[in-house]
Structures are given as structure tokens and as C-alpha cells.
Write a sequence for this structure.
């Protein structure tokens, strides 16, 4: 993340709050060797992008002081090795248990994902387009940048422009197959779903084409 010409000062503030914990503007100013006013301006900028928040702490005299702390969203600013961990874990599963063992683990994950999603979505009573829209809405919340496109002849497309599991999916095809199985179960027996574009195979996005297996009278 970049903060323009204020980048160095704001980077330093985030680093200090990560190592020192919640701080007042004065405490940060003392460490940085700049004025409290300058620190407050930087903190307000960081608050606007959701990286810090504050609570009021009552002092012995004067107005309550603002104590600033990092938000959960600030974790994205710091180094993160989740991708390396996921890739290494999948490799280790294959080494210890073979491809079949790894596939069994991914299938169990897909079953758990299906149970979780089915419990969160209310699909009973919805027609096919309603089910597709509900799934797309959830995938948007999960970070897939999902869209629902309605084409000619009743063709529906679930388009996912981003894959939060991209590193793991490129390492293990079974993850993508597990997600496809989840979609198939959620959409029900009156739907046929096929993946026509696949991000893990080099395409720009993932696209699932959904057609009804029932014909109108």
C-alpha cells in the first residue's frame, strides 16, 4: 500500500503501532521526533483508509486523549505468508499421503464448504436464476469479484474475476474441482454447469456456464 508523499511517515507510524501497541498521538510524536499535530494528520489519513481506529482515554486533567490502534484490515499492510504456507501444505500432503490422500482431504474440505454455504444461503423455493444470483452475491462477499450474466436461450454465467485461493488452486487442481462440485450441489438437479474459462489454467477469469435441464412446456 502506498500513501503518496506521506508514505514514509505513515509507514513508520504503522510499524510503531504494530510493535508498541495502542498509542496516543503525543506518544508517537515523541518517538518520531515530529509534532503531535503532524502525527494526528497522518493518523486521520490512515483512519480514512481503514487502517487505524481510536478510543478515548480519560486523563487526570483536560480532555480525554485519543488512543490509536490498528484495525483488522491493517494486517494486509504487513508481510503475509499464507500463500506460501498453503502451497507448502498441499505439497506436504501429497508427499506424505500421495495424490489420493490429498484428494480425499480436498473432497472433505469441499463437503464442509458445501455445508457452510448451504446453511448461509436460503435457496429453498428459488428458481434457477435466483439460486445463481444468491451464489454470486455470496462469492462477491468472499472476494471473488463475482458477476451474474444472463445470456440468450436461458444461458446463465457465473463470472469470477479474482480467486482468493489462486496460489493453492494452481498447486492443486482438486481445489477447483471441489468448488465446481459445490456449485453443482447448490444449483440442484435441474441445472447443468460447465466451466468455460479457468483462471488456474491461464485464463483471465473463471466462468461457469449454467443451463436448465428442464424445458418449459
Amino acid at each position: 500500500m502506498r500513501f503518496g508523499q506521506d508514505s514514509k511517515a505513515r509507514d513508520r507510524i504503522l510499524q510503531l503501532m504494530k510493535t508498541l501497541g495502542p498509542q496516543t498521538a503525543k506518544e508517537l510524536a515523541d518517538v518520531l521526533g515530529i509534532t503531535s499535530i503532524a502525527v494526528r494528520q497522518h493518523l486521520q489519513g490512515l483512519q480514512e483508509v481503514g487502517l487505524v481506529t481510536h478510543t478515548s482515554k480519560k486523563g487526570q486533567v483536560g480532555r480525554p486523549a485519543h488512543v490509536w490502534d490498528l484495525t483488522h484490515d491493517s494486517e494486509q499492510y504487513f508481510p503475509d505468508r499464507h500463500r506460501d504456507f498453503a502451497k507448502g501444505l498441499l505439497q506436504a500432503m501429497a508427499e506424505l499421503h500421495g495424490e489420493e490422500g490429498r484428494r480425499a482431504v480436498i473432497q472433505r474440505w469441499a463437503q464442509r464448504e458445501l455445508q457452510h454455504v448451504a446453511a448461509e444461503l436460503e435457496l429453498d423455493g428459488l428458481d434457477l436464476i435466483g439460486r445463481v444470483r444468491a451464489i454470486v452475491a455470496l462469492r462477491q462477499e468472499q472476494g471473488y469479484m463475482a458477476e451474474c450474466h444472463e445470456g440468450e436461450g436461458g444461458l446463465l454465467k457465473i463470472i469470477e474475476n479474482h480467486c482468493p485461493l489462486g496460489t493453492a488452486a494452481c498447486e492443486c487442481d482438486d481445489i477447483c474441482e471441489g468448488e465446481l462440485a459445490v456449485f453443482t450441489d447448490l444449483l440442484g438437479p435441474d441445472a447443468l454447469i460447465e466451466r468455460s474459462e479457468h483462471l488456474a489454467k491461464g485464463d483471465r477469469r473463471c466462468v461457469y456456464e449454467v443451463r436448465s435441464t428442464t424445458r418449459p412446456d
